[in-house]
Amino acid sequence: MITTRSDVTVKAVRTSAMDYDVTQAARVSTLGAEAVDAQGSTKGLINFLMRDRHGSPFEHNSFSFYIESPIFVAREFFRHRAGWSYNEESGRYKELNPVFYLPPPERKLVQTGKPGAYTFEAGTDLQWMVASGVAKESYRHAWSSYQVQLRAGIAREVARNVLPVGIYTSFFATCNARSLMHFLSLRTSKENSKVPSFPLREIEMVAEQMEAHFAEQMPVTHAAFEKHGRVAP
């Protein structure tokens, strides 16, 4: 029996990050060893670093997240390589779970315009019924085909080939604040962004939860990121 969901899971499993990490790393350029215990303006220095795009001081910290999402979201996520580390559950080594993604009723379904200059608009009730109905039927058939192969003794790494990208996967993602800000600048759509972005809604759902944790752990850095147009330093 398959199950469906329309959300994503983002859990902060390990965080070693605070605004002081940034200023301490930045001050070593002028103070040397004294930077280890140096105090001073956190807000002013971080805003200067963000404004003038001195990025390396934002790398001396770490965020680790556990994420559950459809495979099509994970594949977009894994395009972020600089400053990121990943480990994903394997369909070779475990039987996958029958959990699949369905777009929620409020998910915009209709694309208008051409690549690079398009928008999405709300679909009709009928269009949502078609999208969800077709997806459920496809998922049921794919899951049945997967199970038939497993019962026949076919290896998991072969049997999984029939499964669609709408099935959920789970993975760990670890990054630093600089790489996280780059991810957020591309995977969220905000009016104050200097560079417009048009992310897939489902990966934006992941990004929004990660950003909330980032803002909680490094509020001064996040505020500077916002102030200077959401451009990663």
From TrEMBL:
As one GO molecular function, the record gives: NADPH binding
Cross-referenced InterPro entries = Thymidylate_synthase_ThyX (IPR003669), Thymidylate_synthase_ThyX_sf (IPR036098)
Which family does the similarity line name?
Belongs to the thymidylate synthase ThyX family.
Please identify the protein, giving its name as recorded: Flavin-dependent thymidylate synthase
**UniProt: FAD binding residues:** 56, 79-81, 88, 176-178, 182
Pfam families linked = Thy1
What residues make up the catalytic site?
Answer: 187
Q: Tell me the pathway.
A: Pyrimidine metabolism; dTTP biosynthesis
Could you give the cofactor binding note from the entry? Binds 4 FAD per tetramer. Each FAD binding site is formed by three monomers.
Kindly list the organism's lineage: Bacteria, Bacillati, Actinomycetota, Actinomycetes, Kitasatosporales
Q: What is its EC number?
A: 2.1.1.148
HAMAP family membership: ThyX (MF_01408)
Role noted for this protein: Catalyzes the reductive methylation of 2'-deoxyuridine-5'-monophosphate (dUMP) to 2'-deoxythymidine-5'-monophosphate (dTMP) while utilizing 5,10-methylenetetrahydrofolate (mTHF) as the methyl donor, and NADPH and FADH(2) as the reductant.
Q: Which reaction does it catalyse?
A: dUMP + (6R)-5,10-methylene-5,6,7,8-tetrahydrofolate + NADPH + H(+) = dTMP + (6S)-5,6,7,8-tetrahydrofolate + NADP(+)
Residues that bind dUMP? 76-79, 88-92, 160, 187
| Assembly information from the UniProt record | Homotetramer.
**Which cofactors must be present for this protein to function?**
FAD
What are the BP-aspect GO terms? dTMP biosynthetic process; dTTP biosynthetic process; methylation
- Keywords of this protein's UniProt record, alphabetized? FAD, Flavoprotein, Methyltransferase, NADP, Nucleotide biosynthesis, Transferase
